[in-house]
Amino acid sequence: MSSVLAAVRRTPPLSLPAVAAAAGSLAALAYPGGVLGLALGAWIALALSASP
Amino acid sequence: MMDHSPVGAARTHISFLAGALAGGVAAAALILLPVAAASRALLPGDARPVAALLVLAVVAVAEAGTLALPRVRRQARQSLGNLSPTLGSFMFGVDLGSGVRTHTSSVTLYTALSPAVLGAPAVALIGLGAAFGLVRGLVPLDRAWAGDPHGWDGRLRNRPVIPRVARAAALACALALVFV
User: Fold this and answer.
1) Residue A1: pLDDT above 70?
2) Does B11 contact chain A (CB < 8 Å)?
3) Cα distances (Å, whole numbers) of residue B158 to A10, B64, B140, B148
4) What is this structure's pTM?
5) What is the DSSP letter of B29?
6) I need a labelling partner for A25 at 20 to 30 A (CA). Which of B3, B79, B105, B128 fits?
């Protein structure tokens, strides 16, 4: 846990959720039918959270 | 609501994330699944992609600011502060992860209706809700773990590219779902 916290502290804002969304999108390239919905949900959440 | 001891903080963070995940799944089950069922019952198969694209067109127009779609303007429930830290964190996670119980600052949320109108399988819609809830829950934790919440806010304000990229990526994923 402490190494995760230390890594997060060194990164720009939203990097953790952005990495999750990007990972979902990359997985969707390999398996679009099953994973595109996950990537969509992740990006919507990021858009909502990052909007002022 | 937050317990600041290391063990207590970890417990509230896990409760919050579990609540956000549950909220996303519940919203998908209660909103997206009925929309998908109605779409399959009412629209012929070849009309559903057209309807899904129409949803995305409406969202794109609303994103451009030329159309106002309803938005949730409620703040987090104050009564959650009366619950135990673990339960309060869980319930706050449910509210945030559902996307429909607390303030939303973007109409991008409506993009989620596109795969539902398309009549996507239940597992894909539940997965969408779960991913939404999980990432929605990760954002406050990312802020808390950064160790400098106000600095985190400032750095986010100085990067308007982040919401733009996220909105574009959401639209691209929704479009890909229509055509794949």
Assistant:
1) no
2) no
3) 17, 21, 18, 15
4) 0.89
5) I
6) B105
